[in-house]
Amino acid sequence: MLGLYIHIPFCSSICNYCNFNRGLYDEALKTRYLAALVQEIGRAPAFAAERLPPSRFALRRTSRTDPPQSLRADTIFFGGGTPSLLDPDEVRAIIDACRARFDFPAGPALSEAAGRVEAEVTLETNPETVDREKLERFRAAGVNRLSFGVQSFQDDELKRLGRIHSAERARAAVRDARAAGFDNISLDLMMWLPGQSVDAWRRNVDGLIAASPDHASLYLLELYPNAPLKEDMARAGWSLAPDEDAADMYEQAMARLDAAGYQQYEISNVARPGRASRHNLKYWTDGEWLAFGCGAHSTLDGVRWKNVSNTEEYIARVTTGLDVVTERRVLSTKERLEDALFTGLRLVEGIDIEVVGARYGCDVWERYREALEPFFDGGWLVREGARLRLTRPGMLMANEIMAVFV
Ligand code: SF4
């Protein structure tokens, strides 16, 4: 089934390391943007119908001449930017627009009625934007998973990143979310921050475990060339810990999370049983998704496309009926195979090379065995039957190993 991604490009302040498609919150612009989003979502099935066979659609036809109307989807992910800046009624309106145009498991209802498989509806949330009452309203609007951008449990590190919440605000937001009825909460932490020691990182991991989320994502800070944080680092004399320390940070974090009962399921992600991100798994399991909003990327039936990035231009195009897509590419079978291999290898369970090979008409083992040999010898990659997977030390070498496929 499809995943639906909704991009909300507004933030209350801009962090000094951020290279995402976002801008400062503007009430009037947001109102026009949300109207455009709802319009774009409404057009999606017709757009997809031009590309997909009718068997891909749930046919909600009232007469035989009606076009297919509805694709099946089972996740909605609000990313940004800071989607939690929206009012819960605005989030509800977007979920309703998705319900109207896509078929979700067990029908369009997203409620917690007994025995139903709910769609997974995730809202990326910044701790400073929510209190208990707002979280209760998000839950009532149909959001059932929160992904908090915590990044650190230490105030000095948060300041360095230009984040506007405190560690205590992050802990309180998780408590508020539990009290509001959320039983699927994820926290993001960033690792290898300027001036961060291995000890300081360990304290962050312990802070995360103490907050007891259901899921966690641990990302390496990536500094893009002109990031203001680079200037701050030069001015303040903050440096990054050496590479060996970064490897140590990763290994220590995973060991602590293992001991706390989390299961690693992807290079950067761990979860309690049954709480892996259903939406993000689509990116790693050769899945398909439609993405709405400025700068959003979609993948469907071997075609990949990107919406125009600029928010004003996006609104203008949607409201005048112009195509919002600026880049569109039909992937070759070879590219689809390569994508399936290198994204799938990010998963702890790895990839079934027979299944992927059958899908793309290729003997994966025959084609890549020789190039992969050094990584087997180094203990970074293993083959178990038809499964190829990275070992944990291999996860630190993932870029080198995946380069074999592209
Ligand atoms: S809150 Fe997130 S999206 Fe917004 S500026 Fe900071 S890192 Fe970027």
Walkthrough of the structure:
The chain is α/β, with parallel strands linked by helices and 406 residues long. Helices cover 41% and strands 22% of the residues. The protein is built from 15 helices and 19 strands. The chain has helices at residues 27-49, 88-101, 132-141, 155-160, 167-179, 198-211, 228-236, 243-259, 278-284, 311-319, 333-344, 353-360, 364-377, 392-395, 398-402; strands at 2-8, 10-11, 23-24, 57-58, 70-80, 102-103, 120-125, 145-151, 185-191, 215-220, 263-266, 269-271, 289-292, 297-300, 303-307, 325-330, 351-352, 381-384, 387-390. Strands 1, 4, 5, 6, 7, 8, 9, 10, 11, 12 and 13 form an 11-stranded mixed β-sheet that branches. The longest helix has 23 residues, at 27-49. The model is unreliable at 59-68 and 107-116 (pLDDT under 50). Residues 11, 14-15, 18, 20, 22, 80-82, 126, 149 line the site of iron/sulfur cluster.
